[in-house]
Amino acid sequence: MNIPELKIGDLIAKVPIVQGGMGVGVSLSNLAAAVASCGGIGVISGVEPGFNLEHYSRDKFQANIDGLTYHIQKARELAPKGIIGVNIMTALSTFEDMVKVAVKEKVDIIFSGAGMPMKLPELVKGSLTKIAPIVSSGKVAKLICKQWDRKHSYLPDAIVVEGPEAGGHLGFSVEQLEDPENFSLKKIVAEVLEAIKPFEEKYAKKIPIIAGGGLHNATDIAEILQSGASGVQMATRFVATHECDASDTFKQAYIDAKEEDIMIIKSPVGMPGRAIRNMFIQDVYEHGKPKGIKCINCLKPCNPKETLYCIADALIQAQKGNLEKGFAFAGAKVHKIKKITSVKEVIDELMEGLKNF
After folding, report:
1. Is 9 left (phi over 0), alpha (psi -120 to 50) or beta?
2. Beta-carbon neighbour count of residue 20 at 10 Å?
3. Can you tell me the distance from the alpha carbon of 143 to that of 25, in angstroms, rounded to the nearest whole number?
4. Parts of the chain with a pLDDT under 50
5. What pLDDT, on a 0 to 100 scale, did the predictor assign at position 178?
6. Where would a tag sit more exposed on the chain, N or C end, judged by fewer CB atoms within 10 A?
7. What pLDDT, in 10s, does the model give residues 183-238?
8. Residue 292: which region, alpha, beta or left (left: phi > 0; alpha: psi -120 to 50)?
9. How open is the CA angle 34-38-43, to the nearest 5 degrees?
């Protein structure tokens, strides 16, 4: 097939792949720049991006502002002609502050999920930064478009549709995750395309759909593009790369993962999440909250008294390779990853496969 470019307004990605944002610290400037340099859209995670800075323990807020600023600037240095995005979860207690940093640093596009980013248009007003909400249903896509239209006279520049096979936090109930026929990615893409039609007609503007969740190879990409998506989002495929910002131990967890190791957990975010089973997860759910963990107030929905663990701490520990104190989120097809390679090799393999599809 002819490989389509992914066009989001005046942003044109020669490779129609958005690298999904992965926090904490799994996709920072190094990975994002590598993907952007290869023609895709590289995405920095806006979740606790300052965790490695010296002043993080005494001034978490400022460290995260400084961390996001640093990684956007660094990605720009490494990929001056590439498209750089930031993923900022709506559930973050510092959501608006992090969006303002991204806009100030003139990031190309902000992706936002884990809630409905109803204020996002006013936060990017007057800038060239594009905005793309992440949804898991046509209903949510319609609601966001309706609100943005009514309150801001603005439509999403793109919409990311995340299916139930994605890694990390999922916009589905556990029951829906167990019903793959009715909640397949293709089906949700079709629902979203239908839901946004009236808004596209009103504004005479196409809203490109970027679909992700469980996409692993060229066949997966081709099928979802043929179902009406303009591009795809892939995250898990980019973890086991030399350029990924996570530790080698974290990457090895992906390589070692078997299909039966993938599990759905209840996250402190208040959503189900897909992760790789390990001793930390088993201990937490069997024996309760570990001792010595303090809440760092990173998420709006998190109730420290009720949650079994601090998810920010667990993900920071995992990123650093301390998997006895944390765990790795991953997509449903992580078990298909067998070795560490380069971002270029991953993208070349996928694009070559698409050409021959």
Report:
1. left
2. 31
3. 31
4. none
5. 77
6. N
7. 899 999 999 999 999 999 999 999 999 999 999 999 999 999 999 999 999 999 99
8. left
9. 50
Looking at the chain, how many residues does it have?
357
Which among 276, 280, 278, 311 has a CA at the least distance from the CA of 295?
311
Helix axes 185-203, 138-152, angle to 10 degrees: 20
List, by residue range, all CATH 3.20.20.70 domains of the chain: 6-248+339-355
Which residue(s) pair with 112 in the sheet? Answer: 133
Class of domain 6-248+339-355: alpha beta
- Beta strand pairing status for 262-266 and 130-135? unpaired
CB 83 within 8 A of CB 93: no
Which amino acid appears at position 92 of this protein? L
* Distance from C-alpha of 154 to C-alpha of 144, rounded to nearest angstrom: 10
Question: Which residues have CB under 8 Å from 4's CB, separation 6+?
Answer: 16, 225, 230, 231
